[in-house]
Amino acid sequence: MRWAKTCMAGMDIFIDKRRTLIKILMWDRSGFVIYYKKLSSGTIERPKDIKDQISVTTLMLMLEGVELKSSRLRKRYKKRAKY
What we know:
Layout (H helix, E strand, L loop, with lengths): L1 E5 L4 E5 L5 E8 L2 E8 L14 E2 L1 H9 L19
Parallel strand pairs: 1-5
Antiparallel strand pairs: 1-2, 2-3, 3-4
């Protein structure tokens, strides 16, 4: 079951129904790459407030097993684009 895309182009995320394994399908310059992680205990938490895309930061938190609803990201400086 396809679940979401990341903000990076060419990356799809698949999570099974039991939420014990995650597959990340990514396009490399020479072909497809599959990253696969299966949990021996626990489940993968999916963010509740996303529609179709998640950030790379959220993906990394999911893979590390961080509880997403209790975590809070701090503000970071972003340089404004000059027009």
